[in-house]
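Supplementary notes for students who missed Thursday's class. We covered one full example, reproduced here. Read the sequence, then the structure, then the short commentary at the end.
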Amino acid sequence: MRAQADAPAWRKSSKSGGGNCLEVAILDGVLVRDSKQSASDPRLRFAGAQWALFTTLTGAARVSR
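Structure (token representation):
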């Protein structure tokens, strides 16, 4: 089945597991959702610059532990 042109293509991190996963899709910014929720449930939307800052800061925190 092929996704619709305006439907997000969700993907999980290779580190996800145990049912506590987030999925990310690129569609007019970056969308984030809980993988346990249905496609129609609420999700977060980040602008590209916001997502870049978030991943930079969380990556830095992970390395400094």
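Commentary. The mean pLDDT is 77. DSSP finds one helix and four strands in the chain. If anything here is unclear, bring it to office hours.
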